[in-house]
Structures are given as structure tokens and as C-alpha cells.
Amino acid sequence: MLWQTIEQYQQNAQFIQIDEFNYAYWHSAKPDRPVILFIHGFPSASWDWHVQWQALNADYHLIAMDMLGFGLSDKPSPYRYSVAQQAASYRHLLASLQVSECHIVAHDYGDSVAQELLYLTERENASLAIQSVTFLNGGLFSESHRPLLTQTLLKSKMGPWLVRWLSKRSLQNSFAKIFGRDTPPAKADIDILWSLLQHKAGIKAMPYILQYIDERKQRRDEWLDVMQNTATPLYFINGAQDPISGEHMRQRFIQLLPACATSSLPVGHYPQLEAPDNVTQLLLDFLGSVSNKN
Length: 294
Prior knowledge:
CATH topology: Rossmann fold
Distance between the termini: 29 Å
Number of strands: 8
Low-confidence stretches: none
Mean pLDDT: 94
CATH superfamily: Alpha/Beta hydrolase fold, catalytic domain
């Protein structure tokens, strides 16, 4: 299965019920190959990884899922979304697919979910074995996260009212601010992300999902302690021009995790869309180095 178009993305989606909700997921079942779990960010979906999926599909067993509130999955609103619940849903999916170990590649909101999964593995002896984690731009450390004014307003009590005024144009304008100077968001990508946002009235869920910004502050020390003490290889691919979590976040990563590898790209908040070939090669190099150590 390759995601060459949004139609293929939709047609190849499978669904799993977790508690009372339906989640869309994709997997290229190759039981003899290493597993990569892709975790998307806010406000998009697993579509973000379509280039990497095509490039890595031949050599890896790939898994992705649209989290609750995103993409093709259910989007309850109002609802108390939480990072812990999102992490639990991934554990449920992996168990249903009989996957007991995997590499994780995460972005944005997905970074927090990956941090929670690592925390559960290290502190609560969860059955999932995490072989490595690759983070892309995201609020890994709350003190260095610089959310857009739009995000701050949508997270506030005014959010459910303000969200009514969101449009494709406002999404385009927001993305233009966080993409790199020479890598603006493609119109086709905005069209797809907007259609996925509209699916199942997902726009209404945005203010409730954004409460994760507060969760990051609350869980910061627990997650950092695990990252500083784990034997799991950690890697940070960073779009340096991102105003939210760009070079300043990479420098904080280096300061707090000096033994971990980082790479910097001259792009913005979405390296996997802005420099997809570079991201794919960096992933291959990192995963190769992890395999050689094992």
C-alpha cells in the first residue's frame, strides 16, 4: 500500500474500535522486517508521512494511525483529550497487530505521545519494547516551546467560539508562518490537510485537543527524567527555521541530552513535508546505526 494520493490514503485505511471510538490506521504487514511506528502531529494526520511511507515501505514493517480527534478517526467534541489516552490507543493497536517491539518516528504533538510511550516502557514496565525514538519538530521541553498566538487563543475559553472562524485561508496563513523561508506549504498539502480537518467536524475538536500544551508542562520533568536515563537511542531531526520549536529547541535538546544525536535542516516546522528526501535519508542512516549497535 502506497499513499500516492489522498484517495489511496482513504481507501486503504483500516479501522479499529478502541473503547467507544473508531480509529483509522494503516500497516504494511511485513512480519520479518523491523517495525516503524509513525506518530503524527497537530492539527494534521498520518498523511504527513506519505513520502517516508513510500520510501521505507520495501524494507520496513510500517504502522501509522490517526489519533483520536484527527484525520479519519473519530473526533468527539466536547471531549477531554489526553496524551495518556493517545499513547494507550497506540499500545492497543500494536498489541492487536501482535507487535511487541518497534522504532518510533514522531512529530509535534506526536513527540509528547512518544515521550509518554517511552515513560510507560521505562517506568511502568509496559510490554512494548521501544528500539529507538526519532523526534521531529515539537515541544519536547515546555520551557522552549513557543506556540502561535492562534494556538494560545484556541486553547483558551474562547476557543470553541473562535474555531468557527477558521478557514482554509487561515490554515494556509498559519502554516506559512511556521514553514521555512524557501519551503512554503504546497497548495495541494493545504487542500488535503484542510479536508482531513473538516472530516467528521474535526475543527470543533481543536480547542479540546490543544489542552496538551498544559499537559506538557505538567509531565515535563517525568518525561525528561526518562529521556536522560533510558538506554533507548534518541534522535532529533530539526527544522531550524521553525519559530515554534526550531533551532532554539535543538539547542535545548543538546543541553539536556548531550549524548543524543541531532540533525538540523534549513526548513520549518514540517521537515517531513518540506525536505522529505532529506528526512528519509537521515532516518535510514540513524536506523542503520541503531541496527549496527545491536
